[in-house]
Write a structure and sequence with these properties.
By secondary structure, this protein is of the alpha/beta class. It is built from 13 helices and eight strands.
């Protein structure tokens, strides 16, 4: 079970959009996926609300108060994709966990007890550096940073990684860190320039897939479903399908058999191994 956190403390970078749509595309590839919504705003929960099961209530705070197997509490939102939903109760949980001696270990304990045969757990982090964020970091094997094509994007990412290094340097060094460029508008020279800066910063830790600015992604979220269910022909569906293929090859190399690689890449030989991001 790979535990992949989607994080960026800068708002509007496509963090939750990436968590929802990447998870759905991994599920389409035959991977059983569990999304854990750790954001008090519960945007991942709202973005997957069209499950046909009625309103989704918060569960994350309950399991963090009393660590247990997550699978019995998971909500099935589509084939191969389950959700541990969040609610506004998480707003008050951060202070409770910060005073608990094992507060930062709670999510890790939950995942250690979780059954259900999940290939991936995808965590949508909260937009703040508190105990909930540190709990998500502790539980993660890998971190994926959506980096918006914008003026303040790299500054925010650098500040975030430096803050994590100050607070929990040993934890960060254990994680595989990757990045993906989001909200890309290929028609502007500015976007191309910023993308080159992002590539220079992250090096081979930047996935080659680029998530283009696509109005259908926003529409899909407003209807409470992933883009592959809302409009499989949309550019956003192609982008997140390609990102899922890269992540499977990177994080689950044993799953990238020759048959699977041919199905994903066609005649193109996939690149081997992405290095860690350089120290910050």
């Amino acid at each position: 079970m790979r535990v992949l956190s989607i994080t960026n403390q800068k708002g509007g970078c496509g963090k939750t959009t990436t968590a929802i749509n990447l998870s759905a595309c991994l599920a389409d590839r035959g991977m059983r996926v569990l999304i854990v919504d750790m954001d008090p705003q519960a945007h991942a929960t709202l973005g997957l609300s069209a499950s046909g099961r009625g309103p989704i209530g918060g569960v994350t705070h309950e399991v963090l108060l009393s660590p247990a197997d997550l699978s019995p509490r998971a909500v099935r939102v589509r084939n191969n994709l389950d959700l541990i939903p969040a609610g506004d109760e998480l707003l008050f949980l951060d202070s409770q966990l910060s005073s608990a001696p094992d507060g930062e270990e709670r999510l890790r304990e939950c995942l250690a007890r979780t059954s259900g045969g999940y290939a991936f757990v995808v965590i949508d982090w909260p937009p703040s550096l508190g105990t909930l964020t540190l709990a998500a970091l502790r539980a993660s094997d890998s971190i994926l940073i959506p980096v918006e094509i914008g003026f303040f994007s790299l500054n925010g990412v650098g500040n975030f990684l430096r803050a994590i290094q100050r607070h929990r340097p040993d934890w960060l060094s254990e994680k595989k860190i990757r990045a993906v460029a989001t909200l890309y508008d290929r028609q502007t020279s500015f976007a191309r320039e910023v993308h080159e800066e992002i590539r220079a910063f992250f090096g081979e830790a930047l996935y080659s897939t680029v998530i283009h600015r696509n109005v259908r992604l926003k529409e899909a979220t407003s209807f409470g479903m992933p883009i592959v269910d809302y409009d499989r022909k949309a550019r956003g569906a192609d982008d997140y399908t390609a990102l899922a293929a890269e992540i499977i090859r990177d994080l689950v190399p044993e799953a990238a058999s020759r048959t699977l690689a041919e199905r994903i890449y066609g005649d193109e030989e996939p690149r081997r191994g992405l290095a860690r991001t350089r120290p910050v």
